[in-house]
Amino acid sequence: MTAASGRAVGNSTVATVDWAAFLKDAVIAAMVATLLALPLVGVETYDVGGGALGIRTHFDRVAIAAAAVFAGRLALQIRQRFLRRGESRITAILSRLTAWGNRQALRLTIAGIAFAAALPFLPFSSRYLIDLATTVLIYVMLGWGLNVVVGLAGLLDLGYVAFYAVGAYTFALSARDLGLTFWQALPLSGLVAASFGVILGFPVLRLRGDYLAIVTLGFGEIIRIVLLNWSPVTGGPNGISDIPRPSFFGLPFARSAPEGVTTFHQFFGLEFSPNQRVTYIYFVILTLALVTNLFTLRLRRLPIGRAWEALREDEVACRALGINPTNVKLSAFGIGAMLGGFAGCFFATRQGFISPESFTFIESATILAIVVLGGMGSQMGVVLAAILLVTLPEFGRAFAEFRMLIFGAAMVAIMVWRPRGLLAHREPSLLLAPRSTRGSWP
Amino acid sequence: MRFGGLTAVHDLSFNAHSREITAIIGPNGAGKTTVFNCLTGFYKPSIGRLTMHVNGEALLLERMDGFRIARQAGIARTFQNIRLFAGMTVLENLIVAQHNLLMSASMFSIAGLFGLPRYRSAEQAAVERARHWLDKVGLTERADTRAGTLPYGAQRRLEIARALCAGPALLCLDEPAAGLNPRESAELNALLLAIRAEQEVGILLIEHDMRVVMGISDRIIVLDYGRKIADGTPAAVRADPNVIKAYLGEDEVETLPGSLATDLR
User: Fold this and answer.
1) Hey, is the C-beta of A3 within 8 angstroms of any chain B C-beta?
2) In which domain, by residue range, is B226 found?
3) A309 and B88 in contact by Cβ < 8 A?
4) What residues does each domain of chain A span?
5) What is the 3-state secondary structure (H, E, C) of A70-95?
6) Which tens digit of pLDDT belongs to each residue from A283-330?
7) Domain count of chain B?
8) Suppose A322 and one of A37, A89, A317, B71 were both cysteines; which one would form an S-S bond, judging by CB atoms 3.0 to 4.6 Å apart?
9) Per DSSP, what are the bridge partners of residue A49?
10) Whole-model pTM above 0.95?
């Protein structure tokens, strides 16, 4: 931070601006930008023909980048210098909005659930919208699952996609080899994923922070690579297809069915429409997500949930109170993995086809971003963050090449404005004197 | 207890009894916290035996995991630099202390998941116990505030209350009066005396504040450079020349201001 020369009288802007320091800072920023821009923007390879590559230079673009950074940095300095101390107007408005939202937490939650339930029947809904909403809900469910591990127990897991994959492949394999349906395979997926979660938990018991993150990342990659290479069982890069879709209490969503089987539209006397299955799948994930939420909310109030949070706060104190950190960590990994497994099972049935392509590290990173963005441990924050992270690239589609730029800019904006996450307030799980009105989001 | 070439605690032997307050004092670096850490499972003593007689059993502490010492041997401790669950409320801190009870009552939370009455009554009992200790330490009005926002003295009291909520047989307090002003020290004395009178618990404390040590201890053990140099009642320790020498050094006793000299004698 540069110190302004001249008098500064309280919050006023009377003092002179320290141009020398500002310019120096902006020049340094421009130099860094030049260094970065040179390899990223300044040189470009092109195909000469015959497999060889030529290099084209674009030093003019580098100069523009440096100049833009210089000007932007200077503007930022000036703005900060002349800003009234305390919140800017925008931040003040947003704070008031958040406070209002906190007071209306219960009503807004009910309204949100009602809106989500009614979504397919609203006039502006379309197959595209329902598909998008389904994707959002998958990520919400994954976010809530990871929230147990990262948000509540404080164990930084960068390989959560492994359990997602395990759940998906458990269903795909059991459908192919054992003929299980979606509903039959759902608990099995959860169980298998939970076992993997516990298996992951054992070697990482003594690890903290960064080391834990790296090992879990490695675990995620191990699962993906095994799936990729174990072709006889998992189909390798070709994946597994023809995964059965869920039926409505035994009524399949097909145009026509083999002899003796009534289809959904026949039973209800409706015209066949592919939207029926899409809508049904949407309601399946909505139900799964709501059940996940209720489950984790309940767990938070139980000894096991409190032990997770206590472990996050101070592991040494936990041990001194007779809490076994091993069991607490394993339960967190196991239950978090189980929820991921459920989501994976659903993902398989929705797509009808899975391959290791869908279970890369980027998925883990996205889910972690959702949890962190939402505010660690906050249920509602995960929903908001999932909506943001899934729909933003979609809106960006209209902007074609600028899509990722907008996405990146949005992330930076969040980091600057809300570094602790969108809803970082922690609501206590137990009150001695219960408040008559709900205070905040779970 | 040996750390490489350094013997932190040499040939120490003492007894602490239930319904008694035993204090361990000595200059900084004498090995007091090392003794605590051995007792509560943070270190494994190089040689020697630590026996806890609880519920008719004799448990060997040096063979047990840290958390098992707290759970089975019933030893609870507070820390020199307070280790509270800062993000959780005061009440939640006290409920976490009763974790093991609640876990068995709820069958590892499964009974709680289904809302079975046996868990609900167990949780009610836990809240009542927490309320009892909150009243004792005077934190009832602040039960729902975040523990991290409490003032220092309140945090210390909360840590003691939390240790007591775990239902220990031996309460180990690591410098409970550190950073407290005279009034707060007097309140701490009253609290510890009340605990001794009402609970079936032994108190072992490390302390530098002589007001607290001399005021309430039944027995004082003095350590210096890892060795025990005195073990007896406050009066005996006060008069012990070895103790005076260790705390101040031989030559300086004569040059003490009057009141301080009497404090130690």
Assistant:
1) no
2) 1-74+168-265
3) yes
4) 19-85, 126-417
5) HHHHHHHHHHHHHCCCCCCHHHHHHH
6) 999 999 999 999 998 898 889 999 999 999 999 999 999 999 999 999
7) 2
8) B71
9) A52
10) no
